[in-house]
Design a protein that fits this description.
The chain has 545 residues and is mainly α. The chain is built from 10 helices and no strands. Helix 5 packs parallel to helix 6. The longest helix has 99 residues.
Amino acid sequence: MVILIAITSAVSLFIGLYGVNNLKTVNDGMTTMYYDRVLPLKQLKAVSDAYAINIVDATHKVRNGNISWSEAIRSYETAAKEVEENLNAYAASKIEGEEVRVFNEAKNLKSKSDEAVNQMLDLLRQGQDTATRHKLEAFIVNEMYPNIDPFTSKISELIELQLGYAKTLNEYGDVLYADTRVITYGITFVGIVLAGVVAFFITKSIIGELGGEPSEIKLIAEEIANGNLTLKFDTQRKRVGIYGAIVQLSEQLKTIIAKIMEGAEGVTSASLQMSSTSQQMSQGSQEQAASAEEISSSMEQMVSNIQQNTDNAQQTEKIAIKAADDIKEGNSAVTQAVDSLKKIAEKIGIIGEIARQTNLLALNAAVEAARAGEHGKGFAVVAAEVRKLAERSQVAAEEINALSSSSVTIADKSGRLLEQIVPNIQNTAKLVQEIAASSTEQNSGATQINNAIQQFNQVIQQNAAGAEEIASSSEELSAQAESLKDSVSFFKLDDEHEKSVHKTKKKQAVNRPAFKSAAVHSNGKKNGIALDMGHDTKDTDFEKY
């Protein structure tokens, strides 16, 4: 039983720890995706946009006269600054594998791209004369694209690598979710089954020890304690546990009380036949003493069994309380897991927003590339790919958010199941408390019965000693016999035992010799012990002498 409860507690604790550990893994993956993949993707996109918008687009606009040369110079300078800042930020992030090689190649090509940008700035700063315009036109056609395109191609390659890494992390998250879901369902089912098995065995053990319903056993014990031995028991029913012991006690008490009452009648008759029956009375008293000793021994054994049942019930109560506390701790761990999933859902929402903004920027770049005409086709392709990747990132973020919401629902359901188990175990503990209290009351009642039987045994011993003095103290012995009958009249016997007692009484009355008591002294007082037994309405059922 203790092992089953320990296993149930361990399963609950494992569910909580396993869930928290997997949530930490998912959280770490989301953090890695955001800081090492999404932000670098944004930085690389900014570099690509700086070349596409602030350099290439500005070059075509100044050539077509759409903007002034000073505005083109400011656009070039802004692009150079943004490219430098974003590349430095990207270099500070986590770069690994193929990404290291591509980034190193991009850095090598950047020098040529920077040189082309600087040459363009020098031409723009020379003035807007015709010769400079011709040089600018020739530079755009012959120098700018051959020097810038290789660098921007490497930036596009880095963007592809970032998206590939993000896809790998997303696939790993899907696998982790699937594994966690299967294991969590399995362990939760095992925990529920074990809890049911524990509750079943606890109940079965208690009922087995009692042998019947606690209320029924309590009623029987109260009736016996009140002296009612007329109870009828089902002979077809299996007599085990405390129920069997009480049934046996009732049957033995019936027989013993009937014998005691019959013996009392015999003592009364023997006290009037002092000389002829004194030895028989002594022998009968000794036999009664032996019977009482056996009863006392049986009562002591029953008291010991009741005490042991009480101790077992108290121990079971402690175990049930401990199981309830452990399940509460498992429920707290599940609550923490729900909070963590909610935080992850918030972060995934941020990622979706970034993907949406990236999609808008790619759309804008595609529009500007379309305006650039033939020279902007390369950037239009890049912008279209970036937009597709941003849309895929947004879809993946929404799917992860849906999975996180599902995980929250599952974890919340697990918490509710654990909360439903706790009251059942607490109710079990309360029932065990009631059983322990009932066992304590039974123990007290059995102890009182045992004490009464001990006192009764002492009376029989006194009767055995008094049997040796019957010849000289008949009235004293008769008074003691009457006292014994009054004591056992507390018990109610069934019809069969009552008939046996009345039959013995009539037989003793027929065989009793008619003589006068000689135990009256000259002072008019009877010899013997004067006992005040009180008045009982049941005394009318017995014959007075």
